Amino acid sequence: MFNIRLFVVMPIITIFIYSCAAAVIAYHPKDNQNDVQTRFVDGNKLATSTKPGSSVSIVSISKSQIGGGVNKLKFLVVDLVLKNNSEKELNFSPQDVQVLALNSENKIKTLKTYSPKQFIKKIKRVQNIANAANAMGNSLQNIDAGKTTSTTTTSSISKINGTANTSGSFSTNTGLYGSGQSNTQLSGNVKTNETSNTTTIDHDAKKRADKENQQELRKIREMQNSNNQQLEAKLLKINTLSPGQVVGGKVVLEYSSSYNQALQIKIPFSNDIHDIEYSIVK
User: Helices in the chain by DSSP H: which ranges?
Assistant: First the structure.
């Protein structure tokens, strides 16, 4: 009965929720695990752990990212499907999911499990930094909006005509005396070039450019808010499951580039502990 319900839920929860974050690393469950059944569904290797009181299926695990450069957030997305096999109501909290990540030397690191609020807060931080950088870039571009510069060059020629007279005399204590005079005729042209720049500002054009940029940023923020709301709706939250009830959603974990070779996932549900091991797809 669980498998039938699972296929009903899967098309809803397997929709990739990060249009701007392409998966670059994926994981598959290891074979021959105790109490874990594996099968392929739409290209994904699905793992189902069945216990007396509950069942847990991991539809897929993939690494994604949002942002770029130093403003980049990397994370793991785990698609979970849960079923209450008991005769009483059971509580499930995604915060109880524990993931141990192994590096190439089999050293272990515990990955942080984000609550929906924590993850949305991180997403918004990346978006706000990107929006601020975009606004700053637009402001720099708008410095010259509506600004026009013209250059004027003027030339003038002046004529010079004249005479320079030089005269002098000398005497010595022995009685020698002398004097002289010279005349120099001066004639020529002096050419002068002058360049001046004049800048005029169309304030209305600058205001229009600023307004267009503000409208563009407003549309981006509205789109981000809409996407964030859709994203948050797909994240798995604390649920109380009635007997036989199935719930599916996504759990987000931190990603470590140093510890990414294998994952050991422990999912507490009711009195059951579901252990499923995954290895990286190469």
Answer: 2-13, 116-142, 203-234
Tokens of 106: 């089999």
Eight-class DSSP state of 282:
-
Alpha-carbon gap, residue 114 to 112, rounded angstroms: 6
Q: Which of 127, 125, 118 is nearest to 237 (CA)?
A: 118
3 state DSSP class of 20? coil
Q: What's the pLDDT at 23?
A: 45
* pLDDT value, residue 274: 96
Six-digit token string for 101: 């990540």
pTM above 0.85, yes or no: no
Region for residue 201 given its phi and psi (left: phi exceeds 0; alpha: psi -120 to 50; beta: otherwise): beta
Q: Measured at the alpha carbon of residue 263, what is the angle toward residues 257 and 265, in degrees to the nearest 5?
A: 135
Do the Cβ atoms of 190 and 158 come closer than 8 Å? yes
Sign, CA torsion 103/109/110/111: negative
For residue 242, what are the CA distances in angstroms to 49, 88, 238? 19, 7, 13
Low-confidence ranges of the chain (pLDDT < 50): 1-23
Asked if residue 275 lies in contact with residue 58, where contact means CB atoms within 8 angstroms, the answer is: no
Per the CB < 8 A criterion, the answer to whether 234 and 13 are in contact is yes
**What is the reported pLDDT for 6?**
37
User: What pLDDT is recorded for position 11?
Assistant: 30
Identity at 8, one-letter amino acid code: V
d(CA 46, CA 57): 7
pLDDT for position 33: 93
Terminal CA-CA length for the chain? 34
Residue with tokens 């059971």: 90
